[in-house]
């Protein structure tokens, strides 16, 4: 057995980054490893005064040389930041792995890779963005031309979650900055390390002071609330729980600030009897248990057409029981721990509730026993249920752990009604080899995203977001450029 992946010594004390300087504070909190409960680092919590300094620095930077930069210059800068991340790739991987316990392979191939792609893609999209142009003739015979110009929103507040830390932060910072804004980011209190490295990358890349600022802390009564309540921010981009999104919306309502929300999900996967069976089993195992089920897009509700239901459940059970749980750098490891003890308590409470609600446990349902020091980590078994009623709490509430319920269905109409019967609407997945059905069903999902015969493959030029409690607005590609810009129409009489 290998030892847990440890944080590089440089990340033992995590400071804020404000106005181009790393800033210490007196109030500190622990960054705790989910692998063994050890304290990885002391995090310097920003108070209201430091958050104010960050917002004021961001405001000043807008009025300084940054405000005069062209998209080409900003694109070059974002590419320079991406270059630094590439050069310090292993440190970023170590930071992500240490904070979350995820597999090294995931941190390399998904998280840090995507961080680089986020910065590079939005740099190029922003540099090459087109604006609109219309020729108009009025009823009186006047000839007009109308064209649009994009301007920055101003100071953007960005609040991110712990489940995909560096991926989420760069997904927001890249487009915000290419559009000419300045930004104050607050990472989750659970995952402060890669955000601190990102601040180092901005510093090393020579980005002017005040353009990118980082404040550490919690939500309520801490940096998150101080930032979103600050009167001098212009917009909030938030990823996290729906309840938190609602709190932030109330906070910014009086100032009528722009918001973009990527929130929770209770996503459905629909498996038709005509699917490629093995690909569907593999795909649903992935969509249910990736990142220990801690992806907003994970399928917690799986509906399988009755003729293949029993076979599918047995195949899912067999495949799930082969998943290897363990330390991030163990050979062949598939799943790491959950993010924290508190979160595991929450997930375990759903494991208990499901049985009280009448679920049949197909596999999992508890914590793995290793018989070594891995028992100190926040590991949990991937779990499959059947037999729950559609209105059970475990069928309606987001668990955000490695869990899915599998239910049989008999018709397209029935399954769509059940899949769409949710307060959430983030992502739908369907598995079928019938082309017409794929297109027909896909557009009837009441979600912002649909995957057919795959899950979580992304083209960053496409829109991303949810409906209902899953979010507000879309980001990705030109949708990000639209959100992070004020568009002004200019009408000229010829
Ligand atoms: P969370 O809402 O608890 O926290 C997210 C961030 O908000 C953290 O940085 C936290 O400190 C901050 N925060 C909390 N309360 C705040 C307040 N009152 N004011 C300002 N900031 C506050 O979410 P989490 O537990 O970190 O993340 C998991 C959730 O995120 C899940 O519901 C998941 O579905 C969702 N998520 C959604 C997407 C998406 O794209 N739709 C992506 C990732 C995660």
List the helices and strands and how they pair.
Elements: E1 13-14, E2 16-18, E3 21-23, E4 28-32, E5 39-44, H1 48-63, H2 71-87, H3 89-100, H4 104-127, E6 133-137, E7 143-152, E8 155-159, H5 165-178, E9 182-186, H6 193-204, E10 212-214, H7 223-228, E11 235-239, H8 242-253, E12 258-262, E13 267-271, H9 277-289, E14 299-305, H10 306-321, H11 341-356, E15 360-363, E16 383-386, H12 393-396, E17 403-409, H13 412-420, E18 424-425, E19 427-431, H14 435-442, E20 449-452, E21 467-468, E22 471-472, H15 477-483, E23 485-493
Parallel strand pairs: 1-5, 8-9, 8-11, 9-10, 11-12, 13-14, 13-19, 14-17, 16-17, 19-20
Antiparallel strand pairs: 2-3, 4-5, 6-7, 7-23, 12-22, 15-16, 18-21
Helix pairs in contact: 2-4, 2-6, 3-4, 3-6, 4-5, 9-10
The structure holds nicotinamide-adenine-dinucleotide (NAD).
Polypeptide structure, described:
With 494 residues, the protein is of the alpha/beta class. The chain has two domains: 9-263 and 470-493, Aldehyde Dehydrogenase, Chain A, domain 1; 267-459, 3-Layer(aba) Sandwich (Aldehyde Dehydrogenase, Chain A, domain 2). It has helices at 48-63, 71-87, 89-100, 104-127, 165-178, 193-204, 223-228, 242-253, 277-289, 306-321, 341-356, 393-396, 412-420, 435-442, 477-483, and strands spanning 13-14, 16-18, 21-23, 28-32, 39-44, 133-137, 143-152, 155-159, 182-186, 212-214, 235-239, 258-262, 267-271, 299-305, 360-363, 383-386, 403-409, 424-425, 427-431, 449-452, 467-468, 471-472, 485-493. Helix 3 crosses helix 4 (104-127) and helix 9 packs across helix 10 (306-321). Residues 159-164, 186, 188-189, 218-220, 224-225, 228, 239-241, 244, 247-248, 262-265, 296, 398, 400, 426, 466, 470-471 line the site of nicotinamide-adenine-dinucleotide (NAD).
């Amino acid at each position: 057995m290998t030892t847990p992946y440890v944080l590089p010594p440089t990340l033992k004390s995590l400071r804020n980054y404000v106005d181009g300087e790393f800033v210490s504070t007196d109030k500190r909190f622990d960054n705790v490893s989910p692998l063994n409960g050890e304290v990885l680092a002391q995090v310097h919590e920003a108070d209201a005064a430091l958050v104010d300094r960050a917002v004021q620095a961001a405001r000043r930077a807008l009025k300084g040389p940054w405000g005069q930069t062209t998209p080409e210059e900003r694109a070059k800068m974002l590419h320079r930041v991406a270059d630094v991340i590439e050069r310090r790739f292993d440190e970023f991987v170590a930071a992500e792995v240490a904070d979350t316990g995820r597999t090294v392979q995931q941190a390399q191939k998904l998280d840090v890779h995507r961080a680089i792609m986020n910065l590079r893609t939005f740099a190029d999209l922003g540099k090459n963005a087109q604006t609109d142009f219309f020729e108009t003739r009025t009823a009186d015979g006047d000839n007009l031309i109308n064209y649009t110009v994009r301007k920055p929103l101003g100071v953007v507040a960005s609040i991110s979650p712990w489940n995909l830390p560096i991926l989420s932060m760069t997904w927001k910072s890249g487009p915000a900055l290419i559009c000419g804004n300045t930004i104050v980011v607050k990472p989750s209190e659970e995952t402060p390390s890669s955000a601190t490295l990102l601040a180092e990358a901005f510093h090393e890349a020579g980005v002017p002071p005040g353009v990118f600022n980082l404040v550490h802390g919690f939500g309520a009564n801490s940096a998150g609330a101080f930032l979103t309540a600050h009167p001098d921010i212009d917009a909030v981009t938030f990823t996290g729980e729906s309840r938190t999104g609602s709190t932030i919306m109330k906070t910014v309502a009086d100032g009528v600030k722009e918001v973009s929300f990527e929130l929770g999900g209770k996503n459905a996967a629909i498996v038709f009897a005509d699917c490629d069976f093995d690909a569907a089993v593999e795909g649903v195992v992935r969509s249910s248990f990736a990142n220990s089920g801690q992806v907003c897009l994970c399928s917690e509700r799986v509906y399988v057409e009755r003729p293949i239901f029993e076979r599918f459940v047995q195949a899912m059970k067999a495949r799930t029981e082969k998943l290897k749980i363990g330390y991030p750098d163990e050979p062949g490891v598939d799943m790491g721990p959950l993010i924290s003890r508190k979160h595991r308590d929450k997930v375990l409470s759903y494991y208990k509730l499901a049985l009280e609600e009448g679920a049949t446990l197909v596999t999992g349902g508890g914590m793995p026993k290793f018989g070594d020091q891995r028992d100190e980590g926040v590991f949990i078994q991937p779990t499959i249920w059947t037999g729950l009623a559609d209105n059970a709490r475990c069928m309606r509430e987001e668990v955000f752990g490695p869990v899915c319920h599998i239910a049989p269905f008999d018709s397209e109409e029935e399954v769509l009604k059940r899949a769409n019967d949710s307060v959430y609407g983030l992502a739908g997945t369907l598995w079928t080899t019938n082309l017409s059905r794929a297109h027909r069903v896909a557009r009837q999902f009441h979600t912002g995203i649909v995957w057919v015969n795959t899950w979580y493959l992304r083209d960053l030029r496409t829109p991303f977001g949810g409906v209902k409690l899953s979010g507000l607005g879309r980001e990705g590609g030109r949708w990000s450029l639209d959100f992070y810009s004020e568009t002004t129409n200019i009408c000229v009489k010829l």
